[in-house]
Write a structure and sequence with these properties.
Elements lengths: L18 H12 L5 E7 L11 H15 L4 E7 L11 E3 L5 E3 L6 H4 L19 H15 L5 E4 H6 L4 H9 L1 H9 L13 E2 L11 E5 L4 E5 L3 E3 L2 E3 L5 E5 L3 E2 L2 H12 L3 E5 H5 L1 H11 L7 E5 L2 E3 L2 E2 L10 H4 L5 H9 L6 E3 L4 H15 L8 H15 L12 H7 L5 H10 L9 H21 L19 H17 L3 H14 L4 H13 L7 H7 L2 H8 L4
Keywords: Aminoacyl-tRNA synthetase, ATP-binding, Cytoplasm, Ligase, Nucleotide-binding, Protein biosynthesis
Main location: cytoplasm
GO cellular component, one term: cytoplasm
């Protein structure tokens, strides 16, 4: 097979407005009958984090475009759950999406089962049939939260039900050819290599040592030897036995193309690590040994999380459920609709920037951005319907995210709405349902402020006035500021300036005067931009509090 053949980087050229259209073009050009099969998949090695959802969301958008063109599409997700557990993750997640440390669950269920298939390992949470099943449940729930209907397929079931038996027998019958093809991609392939890993009947671990093949009978003889797993060795038990092809698994380099054949896969996205590793060998194995056309490939760049790589083993993860506590589903779906060829950082610290970007994208679709380029408008008009799935007749009311975080400083829902209306973010004729939907962002922004402990993580002490001792000069300055607000009803900028001027007139340290204000309203030594914040509150409350009257 030539290097240029099945080039996974050739699918996306950037010539189409929406990358999913370009992939759909390539899938159609590949030919084949409906249903078109779109697949993703991962090994259940730890927490199914946001980065893993590339496998679901990239396929989802391509499937949606193909359905728009009239095709019947199956979107599959394979859980590679017959893989052996090679190491203990630092973090796990329960079915509610709460991330916990390994010490908070039955870690022994994992520690005693290194080298065992994921579906043979007890669920450390005790809620599912196995650790592998627990992981698959989390993937399904994450996909559902994102509005994606995906069919999950267990590799273990494929082996046990015999779905992979014919292709496994074929590869064993042609073990010499398999060894030759893989040897062009891996240095460690020697004359003893066999493309099958039995499960030891004695200890239950996956072993890589096959001593004899009977392809006609569909069995292999094996010895349970040690397995190298990163920087550790998982001890084999030394047992010698015989296993059928249903009692083990193909190595990944062969298992992937075997899935393509058995499931009839037409398209599969994958990360750039596979583009330089498993894909070249997999496409060669498919064409040379299995005599099938590999699926249309698409390489996506990885995400980072707050500047660091996603890592289940290191615990640097965030789940879909976590993110949806901070932003609306459509905002997160928009993130996955962006160009897969560009590496991106998902920053929880600056998630406000993503929300602002989505809000502008939405306004572009509704023709409400005056300085937009033709390309921006074209992109929004094409992609927005796929992001939201059902386009509202009128643009939803969106409170600016950081403004919503400011509103989150008060618990009073009526005050939140009053301030939002006063600032012009809620139209006078907005329906009650539209207002309620808009104000839902306040709780998300408040959660963001708390989770990141940023400059919006403050709460107004509205019910009771904090005990604040002020000297005579500071008291006079506060009374003067209260009178200014009562008489002038200033905007935020004017009020911020007046705070400075009042402190100067009374010869009070500026920092001390602001700190007094923060203690009066937040019972804290610091807080948000005070003038702007006080201008947004109801005037009577602000005046009364500055006069220390309650």
């Amino acid at each position: 097979m030539s290097d240029a053949e099945y080039d996974p980087h050739a699918t996306l050229t950037g010539e189409r407005t929406f990358w999913a259209d370009e992939v759909a073009d390539a899938v159609e050009a590949r030919g084949g009958d409906d249903p078109i099969v779109v697949k993703g998949g991962i090994s259940p090695s730890g927490v199914p984090h946001l980065g893993n959802m590339n496998e679901v969301m990239r396929g989802h958008y391509v499937a949606a475009v193909l359905r728009e063109r009239g095709h019947e599409v199956r979107q599959l997700f394979t859980a590679d759950d017959r893989d052996p557990l090679r190491g203990l993750p630092r973090k796990l997640a329960d079915l509610d999406g709460e991330i916990v440390d390994l010490g908070d669950v039955n870690a022994g269920a994992l520690g005693r089962n290194l080298g065992h298939p994921y579906t043979d390992i007890p669920d450390p949470f005790g809620c599912c049939d196995s650790y592998g099943a627990h992981f698959s449940n989390l993937i399904e729930r994450s996909a559902d939260l994102l509005g994606v209907d995906v069919e999950t397929i267990s590799n273990t079931v494929l082996y046990e039900d015999g779905e992979l038996e014919a292709v496994t027998r074929h590869l064993l019958a042609n073990a010499d050819d398999a060894r030759e093809v893989l040897g062009a991609y891996q240095d460690k392939v020697d004359e003893t290599y066999v493309p099958f890993n039995p499960i030891c009947e004695h200890c239950g671990k996956v072993t890589e040592t096959v001593t004899a093949i009977d392809a006609d009978a569909g069995t292999v003889d094996y010895e349970c030897t040690d397995m190298e797993a990163g920087d550790q060795t998982i001890d084999g038990c030394g047992h010698r036995g015989t296993a059928t092809v249903r009692e083990g698994k193909l190595p990944w380099r062969f298992e992937w193309p075997a899935q393509w054949q058995v499931l009839g896969v037409d398209f599969e996205p994958f990360g750039k690590d596979h583009a330089e590793g498993s894909w070249p060998s997999g496409s060669d194995i498919a064409a040379t040994l299995l005599e099938i056309e590999p699926p249309t490939p698409m390489v996506y760049e990885w995400f980072t999380l707050d500047g660091e790589p996603f890592s289940s083993s290191a615990g640097n993860v965030v789940l879909v459920s976590d993110v949806l506590e901070l932003v609306e589903r459509d905002v997160l779906r928009y993130f996955f609709a962006k160009d897969p060829k560009r590496a991106r950082d998902f920053s929880t610290e600056r998630i406000d920037l993503l929300v602002d970007e989505f809000d502008r994208f939405e306004r572009l679709y509704y023709g409400e951005v005056e300085d937009a380029s033709e390309r921006e408008v074209e992109r929004a008009e094409r992609i927005y319907p796929f992001v939201v799935r059902e386009v509202p007749a009128e643009r939803p009311i969106r409170l600016p995210y950081t403004f919503a975080a400011v509103l989150g400083m008060t618990e009073d829902p009526e005050l939140r709405e009053e301030i939002a209306r006063r600032e012009g973010h809620i139209p006078a004729d907005a329906s009650e349902a539209a207002v309620d939907a808009a104000l839902e962002r306040v709780e998300r922004a408040r959660t963001w402020a708390e989770r990141t402990d940023n400059q919006y993580n403050y709460r107004i002490e509205r019910e009771t006035m904090p005990a604040v001792d002020v000297d005579e000069e500071t008291a006079a300055a506060l009374d003067e500021l209260a009178a200014f607000i009562e008489e002038e009803n200033p905007d935020g900028e004017s009020l911020q300036g007046e705070v400075y001027e009042t402190a100067k007139r009374h010869d009070i340290d500026i920092g001390d005067f602001f700190a007094t204000g923060y203690r009066l309203f937040f019972d804290e030594e610091q807080g948000p931009k005070l003038g702007q914040f006080l201008a947004d509150l109801d005037q009577a409350f602000v005046v009364k509090r500055l006069r220390r009257e309650g």
